[in-house]
Amino acid sequence: LVSPETRVSVSAHNVVVELAKAPDSAGPWEKFSFGLEPSALQERLFVTEENIDGFLGTALCPSSCSQSALESQPLIEVLDVSEDRIQIRVE
């Protein structure tokens, strides 16, 4: 994180925290944590192709699935991720 470029804005109903990556950081962020105390943070994932693939894989077939169940699962491909939509193809 780049400290001087970090901003916080507080209103009656919202808090907005703007974070800036350090210049030597590359690639999208995968997740973030938030909360009132460091010992009780909640974790959230950013919407990325990798996170969507991971979520769909877990939701469709948990770790207890057999190999044959895994082979019969549909092929899911994330085509596009934007602020207002996610486009997924299932075969």
From TrEMBL:
Protein name: KTU protein
Organism for this UniProt entry: Mionectes macconnelli (McConnell's flycatcher)
Lineage: Eukaryota, Metazoa, Chordata, Craniata, Vertebrata
